[in-house]
Amino acid sequence: MALWGGRFEEAVSEVTQEFGASLPIDRHLYRQDIAGSKAHATMLAAQGIISEEDRDAICAGLDGIQADIDAGAFSFDINDEDIHMSIESELTRRIGEAGGRLHTGRSRNDQVATDTRLAAKALAKQLMEDNLGLRRALVEAADAAGDTILPGMTHLQHAQPVLFAHQLLAYVWMLTRDFGRLRAAFDAADASPLGAAALAGTTYPLDRQMTAEALGFSRVIENSLDAVSDRDFLLDLEYACSVMAVHLSRLSEEIVLWSSQEFGFITLSDAFSTGSSIMPQKKNPDFAELIRGKTGRVVGDLVQLLMTCKGLPLAYNKDLQEDKEGALDAAHTLDQCLTVMRGMVSTWKVNAGRMRAVMHRGHLAATDVADYLAKRGMPFREAHAVVGHLVLEAEKAGCDISELPIETFRAASDLFGDDVVGAFDLDAIVAARTTRGGTARAAVAEQRRAVEDALAAD
Ligand code: ARG
Question: What EC number is given for this enzyme (predicted)?
């Protein structure tokens, strides 16, 4: 018979036992569940609601159960529906009547919300650690890149040369904001629902502040209906995961491109590549592709929970049982993606020569040639048109703008002098972009300091 057997005459149908159970998912929350129960029992005793003997028996019994689950020596029964009932039934089998007093002034509704919030906090913490690890790896790669330049792109077309370090630090900034979103998700989960009971609070003199503090929550949720029925803290976590996954997916896409024969900018280490079962020559960037692919799952998890929550009246509804699978999946997926990405970034080989070699195509100096004219008095719009015409000539001749003869420049404008060749120097082009946040070495060094400050603060 289920724990609510009193009101029922028939046992639940076998098909619904498994259908209604959340045990396969929430059994992973046993530590949170036991911590919550111990805090609750301790508070019940402190308030004189149960005896100190009962409290001691409950806490010792729960410790024993935790040790058994840790050791893989606990047999879960799907008929118990969820982790809360599994543990409570087993506790009562072990310690008798005292076990039946644990649930005084509590409902599974505030219990599951408590467990889930504790789990969400732990997941957010873990992801924050992972996030810092990847940021450090990217910063190290940026430091190692020195003066290496590559064609900066827009629309995947050569645009202007940039420092490779600058390109990598762009991802560090995305991840820095991701960290902020994870911290916000942690803060959202950091409020205790325990004591809300089923939906309305209870008649027992519970001390909610006491259980909140015992469980490490920074505050108590002020409305019992809100406490048991909202899962926005999980949405926050899944949103943080989704945006971070999208950022990792963008970097993955670059890795796939950069490691292709066409680009050849990086070579992935063997440890982070795979071969083909038929083509002996293949070395594939599978793991970057997989991170890109898993992003769909993570975003799907977020959308699933948004849909689950959208039509729910107050307060608890069983739909909410569908909250944990996606949240755990999103967080665990991200945890793996961050670890794998870190491994890829710290072991790839950068082919600086190849990055430079491809830059003789694409007229990367065109903007600077236009600036050359503008700085000699020609309105920039006019300069843009003059250089556009030169690019057209270069295209027709099948060369880069920097390879056109000086006479062609002079014919286009008498403002061109021999020194125009200076405008073709890719390193000088990079060095000239000294704007704050720009790609010049000095500006990147400034940026690097801000990156370090953010790392130190997080
Ligand atoms: N297994 C449930 C869940 O995960 C626990 C809460 C059930 N409460 C209830 N009244 N049915 O949401």
Answer: 4.3.2.1
d(CA 20, ligand 1 centre) in Å: 9
Give ligand 1 pocket residues (Cβ under 6 A).
22, 26, 82, 108-109, 112, 316, 318, 320-321
Q: What are 183-195's pLDDT values in tens digits?
A: 999 999 999 999 9
User: β-pairing, 149-154 with 219-220?
Assistant: unpaired
**Cα separation of 346 and 33, whole Å?**
38
* pTM of the complete model: 0.95
34-72 pLDDT, tens digit per residue, is 999 999 999 999 999 999 999 999 999 999 999 999 999
Nearest atom in ligand 1 to the alpha carbon of residue 320 is 12
166 flagged as catalytic: no
- Structural domains of the chain ordered from first start: 14-104 (1.10.275.10), 113-146+162-195+223-354 (1.20.200.10), 358-445 (1.10.40.30)
